[in-house]
Amino acid sequence: MRCKRSYSCNDKKGKKGRLNLSYNGFYGFGHASKKLDLLNATQYATILNEAYVNAGQAPKFSNPQSLGAGTDWQDVIFNTGERSSHEVSVNGGNEKSTFYGSFGYYDQTGIVMSDISYYKRLNARLNSTHKVTDWLTLGQTFAYTNTKSQGINSNGEFGGPLSSAVNLDPTTPILNPDLSAIPAAARPYVIRDANGIPYGISSLVQNEMSNPLAFKYTQLGNNGWSNDFIGNVFAEVKIIKDLTFKSSINGKKAYWGSWNYTPLYYLNANYSNLGVNSLSRSTQEKFEWSLENTLTYQKRFGKHNFNLLAGNGYYEYNIGFGQSVTHSNLPISSWEDASFNFDVGRANQTVSAWDYINTHKVSYFGRVVYDYDNKYLFTGTIRRDGSSKFGANQHWGTFPAFSLGWNVNNESFWPENKIINTLKLRGGYGILGNDGIDDFQFASFYVSGANYPGFNNAGNEVVLPGYYPNTLANPDLKWETTSQLNFAADLKLFTNFNLTVDYYKKKTSDILRKIFIPGYVGVTNAPTANIGDMENEGVEVELGYKKNWSDWGISVNGNFAYLKNTVTKLEKGRDYIDGPGFQSMGSVSRIQVGESYGSFYGYNTLGIFQNQAQINSYVNANGQMILPNAKPGDFIWADTNGDGAITDADKVNLGNSIPKFTFGMTINLNYKNLDFMIFAQGQAGNKIFQGLRRLDLLNANYQTTILDRWTGEGTSNTTPRLTVNDTNHNYTWMSNYYLQKGDYLRIKLVQLGYTLPQSVTQNFGVSKLRFYVTGENLFTFTKYTGYDPEIAAGDSFGIDRAYYPQARTFIFGANITF
C-alpha cells in the first residue's frame, strides 16, 4: 500500500469477534554481495611505477615483487551486518467497536563498519473505530516512532570508509609503529589501536582518503535521532440514507536532531584536526496538520450504480524551529566523556537558532464513479489545488482525470468459452500536479556571511561584512503537471491464466528542477525553475498463472515493461541543461531536446593510437594533425563535427541512464503446510557511469581491469596507457570509456516456510504458527564492474560514486497467532 502522507495511513484495523494476539519476528545476518577486484600491492606498485616512468619521472617503488598482496582495504571495512525485528499486535472488538494495537522494535547494523553504521527503530500504533449510533461513527489512529541511526558517506567519492577502501593504496599497512614520516607536532594525534599501535597512514593517497579504522575513531558516538508523533481523528455522519459526511483531522509532530563529537586527530597531511576538539548538538521540531471534509452519495437503482464524492482539504506544513549549540576545547580525550556540562567559557561556545517558514496547500476535489450492470464503467475526478510554494500568480492548478471501462464478457453476445474467460477493456486520461520542491523557491532572500572590500573613515581599505542573495528569484515558478493517456486490456485465459497489457503515454510539462549555474552569478544555491517538458511512452505486460489441486498449489506472475523517454522542450534560450558534474570532468550528462532525460554526454573514442604513424596520419582537411600532443597508447578522440579540432562541440550522446526494459517474476509453490517463494527482477538498456576512482588523486588504486591497459603496439585498443602526466586527457575527459552496461538479473528473494498443523498448535493455545527462512540478494548476473548495477537514475543521472553495496542476507523468522 502506498500512502500519500504517513499520518493518513489507516490500513490496519481491528476485527469483530474474539481477541487476537500475534507476534512476528525475525533475525538475519548479511554481508556484501560483491567485492571489487582491486590491485594488490605488487600489482599496484608495478602499475604506478609505469605511470611515473611514462611521464619521465622516477619510479615510486624499487622492488614491487617484494610487497606481496599488501592490504585489502575492503576486508578492513566489510563486516557481517545483523538485523532483527520484533512486533506484537493485538486486535479485537464487537458489533460497536473494533481496535488494533501494535508495538515493534527493529535493529540493523551495516555491512560497512557497523560501529558507525546502524539504524534502530521503536514504533507503536493504536487504531480504533466506534459506532456510537446508527448515524455516527468515530475513529482514531495514533502512532509513535523513535529512531536512532548513524550512516557513512554513501554514493560520494569524497571521503568515508567505502570510498577510502576503493582508492587507498594497498602498500600502506593497517598498523604502522614507524611515525618518522609524520611531523613531530602531529604524532600525538595519530590514531592508535587498543594496544597503542598507530594505524597506518598513506603517503601516496591522501586528502579525504584515510585509513578506515582510524577514521572510525573520529566518528564514534555520533548519531542522529528522531521522535515522530502521528495522529488522526475522524467522524462519519450518516445524514440520510445514501448520504454520508466525513471529517478528519490529521497531525504530525516531529522532533529530530544530531549529536557529534569531533576529537583531535591526524589522519594524513591534508585531513586532520590539531586545534581544538568540539561537541555539537542540534535539535529541531516541526508540526504539520491537515483537515479534510468529504460528502459521499451512493445510490443504486435498477442496473445503475452511482458513487459521488465532493470534498475539500487544508494542509499546513513546516511550523517549527531549530537550534544548535557547539562547545569547543573540552577537557576530554574520548567521545565517551563528551558532555555540555564542562565550563569551556563564552569564547568556546557557539549557539544558533532559526525558524521554519510554514507553507500551506488548499484543495477542492470531486469524484464520480458509475457503472451500468457491471458492463460499462466510468470514473471521473477533478482537483483544484493551491500551493504557497509558488508565486502569487501561480498558486493554483486544476487537475482533471477520467477513465472508462468495458467488461466485454458480461455482454449477452459474449459466448462462454474455455479460451478467453473474461475480457475487460479500459482507458483513461488524467493530469496530476506536483509541488514537490523546497519552500519559497520563487523568492530570493538575503543572508549574512558575505565579505566585501571597502574603506574606513580614514580611507584605508578594509573588509566589510554584508549580505548577499542566496539564490535567484523566479516569480513565474509554477506547478509541474503530468498528463497521461493509457489503454489497457485485462484477460483471463484458459481458466488459470491472467494477462494485462497496458499502453501509456505520459507527458510531464514544466519540470521542476534545480539548474546548475556558473559561480560568477554570485549566489550560493542553485535556483529552481520550470526547465521544460518530457514524454514517457511505454508498454507494461503482466502474465500470471495460478492453479491448485489436491495438496499442491502454484502461482507464477511475471511482468515486463518497455519505456521510451524523450525530452521534448526546454525553457527559452537553452539548447541543453548540464547535469551534475564528476570531479574535474565537469558535467557528464545533459537534458537535451530529442534525447532521453539525463543522457550521458562526452567524447567518443575511436580506439587507441598504436604508433606514431597513426598520430601523424590523423589530420584535418588542411593536413594538420588533430591531436599533435598525443602519444602511442593514447585515445583517438573523434572529431564528430569535422572542424579539424577536438572541442566541446565534439561531445555526443553516449547513452541513457534510464533503463529501457524492466522485468520481474514471482513463483509461489505450496505443498500441504510447506510454502516456497522466489522473486527475481532486472533491467536492461541503460548505461552507468562507473565513477568509483578519484581522478584528482594520481596515486589512487585501480581495479584489475587496468591490467589490460596499452603497454605496446597491439596490446590494447580499449584501455589507454598509464601516465601521471595525462596531456591527452585519457582519464580526465568524459568519454564512453567510463560508461558500462547497467543490465542485470537479480535473484532478489527466496523464501521457504512451514506452517505447523492446527492439530498440533491447538494443543498449546496457538491458532497459527509458521516458521520461515529467507535469502535476499542471493545472486546477481551482470557485467557491471561496480558494487551494484541497481543504482538510482533521476537527478543522479546514473552516476555511481560508490553506492552502498547490496547485502546478501539470510533471515530466520516466525509468525505466531494466538
TrEMBL record:
It is found in: Cell outer membrane. Its main location: membrane. It comes from the Bacteria. Residues 242-757 form the TonB-dependent receptor-like beta-barrel domain. Gene3D superfamilies: TonB-dependent receptor, beta-barrel domain. Keywords: Cell outer membrane, Membrane. One of its GO terms (cellular component) is cell outer membrane. Pfam families: TonB_dep_Rec_b-barrel. This is SusC/RagA family TonB-linked outer membrane protein.
